[in-house]
Structure formats: C-alpha cells, structure tokens
C-alpha cells in the first residue's frame, strides 16, 4: 500500500534549512518544494506528459513570493489541464504566444500595415485623410484592442461618438475603412471572419453601411 504524503505546513517550510546538497519537501499530488544549497526554495510540480508519458516538472516560482496556498492553486490548475490531456507547460507557452501576438496585432498596428498597402493605390492626400480619420475617431477607442478580440459591438462602440455629433457621412467612411482593415486582418490570417456590422445602433437610414466579409469593389 502506497504511503500517504503528509501535506506541508508554512511552519515546516520556514524551518527548512539549506544543506550541502539540494533536497525536496513533498506536499503530495506532484507538488514539491526544492530546497537549494544556496538557501532558495523553489516550487515544482511533477507530472507525466499526456502525449509522451515522460515524467517532467513545471516550475511554480520561489517561496515565499509564491505561498504554499498559491502553489496548491497552481497545482490544482495544472491537474485540471492534465485531466483533459493538456500539457500544463505547453498550455503556458501557448498563452505566452497568444499574449505576444495580441500585442503585435492590435487594431492600430494592423491598420498601419493595411494603410501602408492602401496608400500605394490612392493619392497622398487621400491616404493622409484616411489615416487622420482613424487616428482622430477610431484609434482612441479600439486602437489598443487585438483584432482577435474585436466583435461587432466593439466596432459599434468605435463609431458611436461620431454618430452622436451628427457626422453621419464620417460614420459611413469610418465603417468602410474599419471594414477594410478587418478584411486585411482576415486575409493575412489574423482572424477567421470579419464582424458583420458597425451600424446596428445608428438612427438614420442615410448610413446603412454594413461590414462585409469580402473585399469591397474598387
């Protein structure tokens, strides 16, 4: 019969002193605290990778910055992932990648890449007008949002202040330009589909420009 591991206590952890060689304290269910000969105390979670079945370990940080309670919560989160055959470390790497992609694929940065393509096919003055309109009315509202997080209601929010001041023709132009940016995002593989409309809350029949999922005619 397997011996049951006695859970750690804060008192036990605080009392643990460095030795000539590194050693471990066990909390159970894969959670250990590595006591380094240097005196540092590092949380580790040991598990078997779902795909390869190889034993590995995941770092949870150092004690006391990561408390015993925090380490147990992290262990619980990793065990939930493992129950779904998801490798916690691969999941963590994917989250970092997604975060990095979100930072480089904000609406503002994607719009800038689109504009650099767009301006080659229009006059310099028109290109400048496009950018100024986005800079003035759109970027302050949704410029910092990743295109992957933008929904139809996000786009409505972007043009509502312009609608409120009665600039309906400007709303129409902005909808068209925002739409082109989102189509560019779709065509470059950043999003799967373009949000359908930015105009459901507009109170006029004079500006019924809906977002399309295909490139506009020239």
TrEMBL record:
InterPro entries: CB, DNA_brk_join_enz, Integrase_DNA-bd_sf, Integrase_DNA_bind_dom, Integrase_recombinase_N, Phage_int_M, Phage_Integrase. It comes from the Bacteria. One of its GO terms (biological process) is DNA integration. Keywords: DNA integration, DNA-binding. Residues 105-186 form the Core-binding (CB) domain. The keyword DNA-binding applies. Gene3D superfamilies: 1.10.150.130, Integrase, DNA-binding domain. GO terms for molecular function: DNA binding. SUPFAM superfamilies: DNA breaking-rejoining enzymes. Belongs to the 'phage' integrase family. This is Uncharacterized protein DUF4102. It comes from Samsonia erythrinae.
